[in-house]
Amino acid sequence: MTPQEVSHIAGLGLPVLCTDTCSVLDILRDPTRDTARAHERLAAQALLAAMTTGAALVSLVADQVRREFAENIPKVEQEATQALTKLRERVIRANEIDKVFGGAGVVDLSHLDDHVQRARVVADDWMAASNTVGPTPAIADRAFARLMAPRTPGKRGQSMKDCVVIETYLEVVSALRVAGLASRIVFASSNTADYANEQRGVLNGDLQAEFTTLNIQYAPNLPAAKYWLGL
After folding, report:
1. Strand-strand pairing, 58-62 and 131-133
2. Any residues with CB less than 8 A from the CB of 42 and at least 6 apart, and which?
3. Under 8 Å CB-to-CB from 202, ≥6 apart: which residues?
4. How many angstroms separate the CA atoms of 54 and 194, rounded?
5. What share of the chain is helix, strand, coil (3-state, %, to 5)?
6. What is the distance between the alpha carbons of residues 124 and 25, in angstroms, rounded to a whole number?
């Protein structure tokens, strides 16, 4: 991100949301999963509206996040489609069996026919409304050092992609703070296994110390992000 872009965002004085890939993909994930919740999708819609109408929120996505989104969205979309198809097949079978015993009611799930397409639009719009934060030469070195230490979210033997994402956000947020931005900044990632470990929703201490220095709040889901952003 150029100094001019940093200065422009800082000048807006708006809250800033930095999002991990998983949190954007969650918008589209299989809605039949036990962990799927309607209020998380409502929060996604509200945050997107804040980005696109009334200029109430600035959304940042690391270049690494944008590339991971493009790589993974087809698979996530396919999984959601397959899950809903399976659900409909089960309901149809249950309806047919129920008729054998005199049942007259029919459960109709036709409203789910275009659910995946509608959810995909929201995820795509989220990425379109977000400002891309490109990598600088120093980010790769810092990400590698984080991985080898290891410091959250780095784990030896794993890819350093998550480290690249976090170093990208730490760098741009530092620049925004230096430029005078005093508003709320939130990093959202539902990847609690790498960021919060056994303390669900509580950021690991090493990264929390870095976030505290820059006044960044961690959100394990989009409803929490909406809350911490004051929206």
Report:
1. parallel
2. 223
3. 196
4. 34
5. 60, 10, 30
6. 10
Assigned domain for 103 exists = no
Q: How many domains does the chain have?
A: 1
Residue 167: give its domain's CATH number.
3.40.50.1010
Cα–Cα distance for residue pair 61/221, rounded to 1 Å: 16
What pLDDT is stored for residue 72 in this prediction? 97
Q: Where are the beta strands (DSSP E) in 113-215?
A: 131-133, 185-188
Distance, CA of 97 to CA of 33 (rounded, Å): 25
| Residue 31 vs residues 35, 83, 92: alpha-carbon distances, Å | 9, 8, 18
Domain-embedded: residue 187: yes
204 class by beta-carbon count within 10 Å (0-12 exposed, 13-18 middle, 19+ buried): middle
169-187 burial, b if ≥16 CB within 10 A, otherwise e? Answer: bbbbbebbbeeebebbbbb
In a domain, 213, yes or no: yes
Whole domain around residue 34: which residue ranges? 3-74+115-229
Measured CA to CA in angstroms, residue 83 lies from 110, 112, 118 at distances of 14, 11, 16
Report the Cα–Cα distance between both ends of the chain, in Å, rounded.
Answer: 25
pTM recorded for the entire structure: 0.93
Q: Where are the alpha helices (DSSP H) in 179-221?
A: 192-195, 205-214
Please check the confidence at residue 8 and state whether its pLDDT lies above 90: yes
**16-19 and 185-188 beta bridge pairing:** parallel
155 within some domain: yes
- Residues 128-157: what's their mean pLDDT? 93
